[in-house]
Automatic annotation (TrEMBL):
Residues 13-143 form the HTH marR-type domain. This is MarR family transcriptional regulator. GO terms for biological process: response to stress. The lineage of its organism: Bacteria, Bacillati, Actinomycetota, Actinomycetes, Kitasatosporales. The keyword Transcription regulation applies. It comes from Streptomyces xanthii. It holds the Pfam family MarR_2.
Length: 145
């Protein structure tokens, strides 16, 4: 057995993997519950949250959420029907449409973010330095370091 393979199956690594899975499952559950309180699906909430940071073309939304552009079109259609998102010409290229949150969409996205306490509460118990180290480890794990 190689050293790399043994590190992937050692008890500590397996425990960390299980803990990451538990955190992800709890986060998704809380996210779905928060979305439902706003009469949104989890996918609609994720799109709205992303757009509240920056209006984007459909293709970029799909790339960031790692899904098909046709799925995003349907989600944006439903958010637009609810008055949470609108399509606008892109400032850089008027031939391209971007999806952007309305004022109500920004309010709902903020409310969703504010209601997600699961991750924030335990992180608040860590020092600033511990949060920086944790962030940097997550960036390394996700390849964004």
């Amino acid at each position: 057995m190689t050293a790399t393979r043994s590190r992937r199956t050692d008890p500590l690594t397996l425990e960390v993997v299980e803990l990451i899975g538990a955190v992800v499952a709890r986060y998704h559950q809380e996210y779905e519950e928060a979305a439902a309180r706003h009469r949104l699906t989890g996918a609609q909430a994720r799109v709205l949250g992303l757009l509240s940071l920056d209006p984007l073309p459909m293709r970029q939304i799909a790339q960031r959420l790692k899904c098909e552009p046709s799925n995003i079109t349907g989600i944006v259609d439903r958010l637009e029907t609810r008055g949470l998102v609108e399509r606008r010409p892109s400032p850089g290229d008027r031939r391209v449409k971007v999806a952007a949150p309305t004022e109500e969409g920004v309010r709902v996205a903020r409310s969703l973010r504010d209601s997600l306490d699961f991750a924030r509460e335990p992180l608040a118990g860590l020092s600033h330095e511990e949060r920086l180290v944790f962030r940097d480890m997550l960036r390394r794990m996700t390849g964004t370091a």
